[in-house]
Amino acid sequence: MVALMARLIRASQNAIRLRSSHSPSSSPTIQFYNFLHHSTIPLLSPKSHSTPTDISGPLPTSPLDANIVRILRHEIKYQPEYAPIHEPPTKFKSFNVQDRPCEQWITMRGKFGDDEEIKLEITMFDGYELCPKHDGDGEDVILRLSVLVSISKRDSSDDLEFVCSAWPDSFEVRHVYSLHRDRKLNRLPYLGPDIRELNKNFQKAFRDYLGARGIDEELSFFLHDYMMNKDRIELVQWLTTVKSYVEK
C-alpha cells in the first residue's frame, strides 16, 4: 500500500507538471497576466525550504491516519534520495533572484544602463510541447515556463512589459505592451498582436532587445534548472505540511 500511494503521489506530481496551460474560457496570455498581477494567495504558509529530517516519531492512534502518515514519511524520505535538493541560488549574472517559498513563482531584478530597472516574474512549469525523440521512438515532453518582463525608466510613468515563454534552450516573446505604473484600475491592457505570428525580423528585433539586457537562452537554461529544484523543494514541503497536520 505504501509503495502504491507513493507512486500515486509521484504520478500526480507529473500530471501537474505536464498540464496544458490552454483553457476553453480564456487565453493563456490573459490567465498568465491575471495570475501575476492579481494573485496574492500563496499555496502554503511560507516556511523554510530546507529538507525536513524528522520523519520518525509515534504514529496516530487512528489506523487510517497512521497509514497516511506512514505513506507521507516514506515519500519524504524517498524524494531527496531520488532527486537531491540544492540551496537555490540568489544571483544570476547581474540579476538578483528572490525565491517565493510555498508559492508558484519567483522574482528577479536587475538594471540596464543608468536609468532602466528590470523585473522578471517567472511561474513554475505551466505548459509543454511534445517533440519526437531523436531515435524516432516515441515523444519527449518539453516543459515551458512563463515569464513577465517589466522594464521601467525613471523619466517615464509607463512600463514596457513582455509576456514570454522560456523553453529549455530558447526564449520566446509572445506579447509586448505598455502599462501605466499605477495599476489601481486593474484593467487588462491591450496586449498587441501575437509576436510569434509576425515576420521573423520583427521577432528577432524583440529578442535582441531583451538579449541586450541579459534575457536570453542562457537565462532560460538557468530558470529551468532553478524551477526543477524548486519543484522538488515545494513537493517535500507540501508532504511535510500534510504529514504534520495529520499527526496532530
Automatic annotation (TrEMBL):
Instruction: Give an example GO cellular component term for this record.
Output: mitochondrial matrix
Q: Which Pfam families match?
A: MAM33
Q: What superkingdom heads the lineage?
A: Eukaryota
What is the protein's name according to its record?
Answer: Mitochondrial glycoprotein
